[in-house]
Specification:
Elements lengths: L19 H11 L3 H21 L4 H13 L3 H14 L6 H17 L3 H12 L7 H6 L10 H10 L5
């Protein structure tokens, strides 16, 4: 087994990869199928825990586990694992990879409805070169809980394409 699991999925050009059950859980959550979302996130968690167990100090894998835990409503554990992932791959050590982990800590916080942590982390990543984009913030379901929040909308507006 490698740190990406079987049939990894990326949502951008990055080193953070997701397993299929996690993506299925996100889709179920978007369509308000809570039973299917819980089942998919539970499967995703079991798979991701094996990956993290094999490589406990690999930040991207722990980051994904935090997102899965957030999908399951395990707020404290989700934020703990998200913060630990940032510690394992800090911006000072890896500006690109670290920014991805910070972005997903923001998403993790958004999913557990911690708008303060989400806004703080998103502001950090939006102020530097990273893969975060206007399109991602407008379209990816990670950010749904933040829609309408003034801090989030300001960040989205700052990344909007500029007209000539």
């Amino acid at each position: 087994m490698n740190a990406s699991g079987e049939n990894p999925i990326t949502l951008a050009n990055e080193n953070v990869v997701f397993n299929r059950p996690f993506i299925e859980g996100l889709i179920a959550r978007m369509t308000n199928d809570n039973a299917k979302a819980r089942s998919a996130f539970t499967s995703a968690q079991l798979e991701q825990e094996k990956i993290v167990g094999a490589e406990p100090n690999y930040g991207p894998a722990l980051c994904v586990l935090g997102l899965i835990e957030a999908g399951l409503g395990q707020k404290e554990q989700a934020l703990l694992d998200g913060r630990r992932a940032v510690e394992l791959l800090p911006l000072k050590k890896d500006a690109v990879g670290g920014a991805e982990i910070v972005k997903y800590l923001a998403a993790n916080a958004a999913l557990v409805d911690d708008k303060n942590v989400a806004g703080e982390q998103l502001a950090i990543v939006a102020e530097r070169p990273s893969s975060i984009s206007y399109g991602q913030l407008k379209l990816l379901p990670f950010w749904d809980p933040l829609r309408g929040d003034p801090r989030f909308e300001k960040i989205v507006a700052s990344l909007a394409p500029k007209s000539n």
